[in-house]
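Fig. S4 source data, part A: sequence.
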Amino acid sequence: MKFFSFFIFMVFSVWVIGQSHFSGLGGAYFNGLGRAGLTVGGIGAMYNNQAGLSELKNWSVDASYERRYNLEDLTGIQVSAAKKFGFGTLGVVFSQFGSDVYNEQLYGLAYGRTLSKKVSAGGNLSVLAFNGQQIGSLYTATFSFGAIVKIDRQFAVASHVFSPVSIKLSEYNEISSRFRLGLTYTPSDKVNLYAEVDKSLSRSHWEYKLGVDYQVVKKLVLMAGYNPNADFFGFGFRYRLVNTLDVRGATSFHQVLGLTPALSISYGE
């Protein structure tokens, strides 16, 4: 079973666009939105666009989980924490994906701050680890950065760059640069519409993402998303148990590979 899961990961992580570990962090934060959400603020920004850390009010911690294609050996976990200071917001993150046969890890130090009333920026310094029974362990370092511009009350644009310089790991493997651009439209206080484009230098084509969230009642938000290039749909929810505790659940469905359930729990103020 472990060999089968490893084979599935190695083959389909290339075939299914945008499904590599480092482009799919955040558990239920973005799974329900078709992996859109560059303008998402708070602790969730640790995983997608660190500029959104500027929206954190004080401090927060998060634990996220994902079981890709519902296979135990393709499990991803992320743990993060962030604290706001006078000079900006600092955060740390740890992520692991895979099994004892092969797994990938990320250790990150993030920073985000508000530059003006409408502009925020942030970035992340990361150490990436690749561990396999046959290949041993391989480490490399990279960084990412992003920005969010709130045009007015209804529109916001965001951009993010992961590993601006591609890193060659071996003759056949590399960490490819990844560029994303997103637009969020908020027609009312209860609805957000997301549209994004995503380009990795290792791919010849662009990836497109669409998402929407709707606040049904004060404590409950529903999410839906579609990623036509990767051919999957996402659905999810956010429920606020108390003022400082949020629970998010989501799942995405691929017509060939099946379901990917995800869960995120965050606590903070």
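Fig. S4 source data, part B ends here. DSSP finds three helices and 16 strands in the chain.
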